[in-house]
Amino acid sequence: MENWKKSLIEHVKGDFYPDYPLSRLNAMGVGGKAALFLILNSEDEIPPLLKMKDEFNFPLFVIGEGKNTLFREEGFPGVVLKLKGDFRKIIPQHDKVWAGCGVRLASLLNFFISHAWGGIEGLSGIPGSVGGALVMNAGGEGFSLGEFVDSVEVWEGDSKRVMHPCFSYREGVQTSGIITGAWLRFVSSDKREIKQTIKEIMEKRHKKFPHAYPSLGCTFKNPSPQMPAGLLIERAGLKGLRRGGALVSPKHANFIVRVGECRSTDILDLMKTIQEKVYQMWGILLEPEVKIV
Ligand SMILES: Cc1cc2nc3c(=O)[nH]c(=O)nc-3n(C[C@H](O)[C@H](O)[C@H](O)COP(=O)(O)OP(=O)(O)OC[C@H]3O[C@@H](n4cnc5c(N)ncnc54)[C@H](O)[C@@H]3O)c2cc1C
User: Same structural domain for residues 268 and 226?
Assistant: First the structure.
């Protein structure tokens, strides 16, 4: 085993999985292997991990629920880190609530409902973790998580800092570090009203998005609200286009769904074809929303 792996295992308390299949860590079930998959349960382990990273200079990628991440077939040559345990805590304090980055969005929403807190109903049906949603500024239909973020805590280098990020469309916290969680705002509301809003959002989502097959959500960012990527792809006649096990969804053209044995190269090929065709037709280069690693 390489020295950096040995040193990590010696100095950091966590669950270590060498040569781990990345297909187990993302919604499309694709990708090569991670040199090391590491699960940390406590913040105490972040400083020694970052010290080792500094010493051995291995690449580090933090994964949430992998609902927006496409791993390449080549795999990842360093540490893929997942945060569980203490990072899955939700702690209310006065008029704000702390949400650890490992908290699933559905759990966060349920916690808000149980306290009759409104504000983040727009997260209904969006899969993922708080960490991923902070980076992606997850949302839709006029809502984005950033509107309810007071501050974000991030480990960078050997220190932790508090950030007040500027959020914009699908652009959230920009860091090469490790987000541990965020202080969120909420508005006092009525449980029945919150549940009704959620029901309406879920009904809309079921009509609009493909749910029967795995996907990574929207593949490309919308060039503008008037020009949704899905419409451009559909008008370019690409609905139903297939590469291997990856298909441009006939229901929503901005979704690539997995319909059979699939590799990340199938998805990347399809993305390239979509970009080329849309560019030829409209002169617009679609920017991927999914994170390609
Ligand atoms: C069926 C489906 C529907 C979807 N619908 C929507 C939608 O309506 N709206 C929407 O916005 N998105 C949607 N998505 C995309 C996805 O759900 C969101 O982007 C979500 O926020 C991703 O969270 P995640 O934890 O899975 O992120 P991941 O894919 O795990 O990570 C995303 C990015 O965040 C970074 N990251 C995660 N955690 C940390 C951390 N602790 N520290 C530093 N960096 C971190 C990763 O490195 C990566 O760059 C959908 C996806 C699917 C599969």
Answer: yes
CA diameter of the chain? 56
Instruction: Give φ, ψ of 75 to 5 degrees.
Output: 85, -175
Q: What is the CATH number of the domain that holds 131?
A: 3.30.465.10
Does any domain span residue 54?
yes
In a domain, residue 26? The reply is yes
- The domain tally of the chain equals 3
Residue 128 near ligand 1, beta carbon < 6 Å:
yes
Q: Is 166 a catalytic residue?
A: no
Parent domain of 10: 3-83
Instruction: Report CA(133)–ligand 1 centroid distance (Å).
Output: 5
The answer to whether the predicted template modeling score (pTM) of the entire model surpasses 0.85 is: yes
Q: Is 22 in the pocket of ligand 1 (CB under 6 A)?
A: no
* 94 and 188 both lie in a single domain: yes
CA dist., res. 101 & res. 53, Å (int): 21
Digitized pLDDT (tens) for each residue of the chain, 293 residues in all: 799 999 999 999 999 999 999 999 999 999 999 999 999 999 999 999 999 999 999 999 999 999 999 999 999 999 999 999 999 999 999 999 999 999 999 999 999 999 999 999 999 999 999 999 999 999 988 899 999 999 999 999 889 999 999 999 999 999 999 999 999 999 999 999 999 999 999 999 999 999 999 999 999 999 999 999 999 999 999 999 999 999 999 999 999 999 999 999 999 999 999 999 999 999 999 999 999 99
Closest residue (by CA) to atom 38 of ligand 1?
131
* Cβ of 27 less than 6 Å from ligand 1: yes
* Cβ burial 122-139 (10 Å sphere, 16+ → b, else e): bbbbbbbbbbbbbbbbbb
